[in-house]
Design brief:
Elements lengths: L2 E3 L1 H17 L1 H20 L6 E3 L2 E5 L5 E7 L4 E8 L14
Parallel strand pairs: 1-5
Antiparallel strand pairs: 2-3, 3-4, 4-5
Helix pairs in contact: 1-2
Length: about 100
């Protein structure tokens, strides 16, 4: 199934990768690999992860404190947030209103 990132989720992803790049290029590479692997899992079996609220599901990224929040639409998966799990929950809800 195809997918798309909400522009704000794309920004979060980039910012997180840049943060890890400041620590180490290797850590940044592992982070990107893990996020991409998680998205691949979601694309393969989008309904595997439970609905948290309002049809939004969350899949955790291995080895990093991030969750990918997404919905399964008619013909695509929409990623609404790639969220650090210690961040205030629900900050991204307004994205879905647009």
């Amino acid at each position: 199934m195809r997918y798309r990132l909400d522009p704000a989720a794309r920004d979060e992803y980039r910012e997180a990768a840049e943060h890890y790049l400041k620590e180490s290029p290797r850590i940044a590479s592992v982070f990107v690999d893990q996020v991409e692997a998680t998205i691949a899992l979601i694309r393969k079996n989008p309904t595997t992860w439970r609905i948290l609220e309002h049809n939004v599901r969350r899949c955790l990224v291995k080895r990093f404190p991030f969750g990918i929040y997404y919905t399964v639409e008619k013909d695509e998966i929409v990623v609404w947030a790639i969220m650090h799990l210690r961040r205030e929950p629900g900050y991204w809800h307004e994205r879905r209103a647009h």
